[in-house]
Amino acid sequence: MTGDSVRAAFAIEIRERYGDVARNRWPVAVSPLPDELLSSWLHRLALANGTAPRSFAGVLGLGERMWSPRLDLRLPRHVATLLGHQTGRATEEISAMTMSGCAMAPLLLPLRASSHRSRSTWMQYCPDCFTADEAPYLRRQWRLASRVSCFAHGCGLRDRCPACHSGIATFDQCELVPQHFCARCGFDLRAAPKAAVRASARRLERAIADICRVDTAKGLIKISDAVARVLRAPVAAEVRSARTLTNLSSAARIRCFEALASKPPDWLVKDMDGADACRRWMILAAGSHEALIARFADFLEGHQAAPRPKRTPSVKADRSELFGAYVRLMHAVGARA
User: For the chain, what are the domain ranges?
Assistant: First the structure.
C-alpha cells in the first residue's frame, strides 16, 4: 500500500474536546449496581460514553496514575459535583459508592499498581460473579483484606490475572474494553480458574465478617478491637511472610484463614470481658451472626410456643357399609313404630 492510499484510507481530523461536545450532560447514563465501587461505576460510565478509562481521568481533571481507586478513598467535592451534574445522580448516591468513612477502612487493601506475587494488590475479583453479571463490575467488599472468598459462589477471590500475573488495572485501560478483561494482556478474567477454599475457612471468614460488623457498629473507637485482631491474623496463623493481613496476596490470605480455621479461636477472644467474649464465641460456634439468631429463634419457638392440640385422625368409611348401617337403622326405627 502506497503512502497516498494510506492517507486516503485514514483521514485525520482535529475534533472538539469531549468536554466541549458533551458540556451539559454526558450522553449515556449508567446506573450503579448493588455494592458497586465508585471506580467500577466510573469505568463503566467512561466506556458507555465512548471514552477509555485512562482518558476519562482527563475529563474529570485528574492525573492518570490509579486515578479511580484514589477516588474510592477520597472523593473531592468538585469531582462529586461534576459527576452529579453530568450524570443526574445525587451526590449522596455517588459518595455512597466510596470507601471513605468506612468503619472497616483499616482492612482495605493498599493501593498498589504492581507488586510481588506474595504481596497484596488493591483489588480482588470473583470470576463467577463476572460471568453472572450482565455488566461485570467491582464490589466494595472485594477491597477488604478480610474477604478471601465469594459468599455467593463459595470460590476463592483472585487478585491477579492468571495469564500475566498483573493486578487489576482498569484505571490504566487505554482501549474501549470492559473491565473484566486484563488491561495488561487482554485475558478474559471470567475464564480464570476457580481458587479453592476449605469450607472451614469460609465459615471462619463469614463469622469474622459478622464479628467485625457487630463490633464496628458500636462506633465508640476509631479502630475496633475485632478489626485490630483481624489485622494481626497472620501472626496468630504463624504466617512468616507478613505480620499484617493487608500485606498478603489473596492466595496467601486463603492459606492464612485455612490455618486459623484449624486452631482454637483464642486470638479473637483473648483478654476480653465475659459478655463480649461470649458473644464472639457464640458467633464462631454458629458460623455467622445470622445463623446464631436463627438458632435462638428455633430455641424460643421450641420452648415458648404453646403445644398444638393433637388432631383426631379422620376415619375413612366405606360407602356400602355406611349405606347398610343406614338401612338397618331405618328398619329398627320402623319396627319400634
Answer: 1-101, 199-299
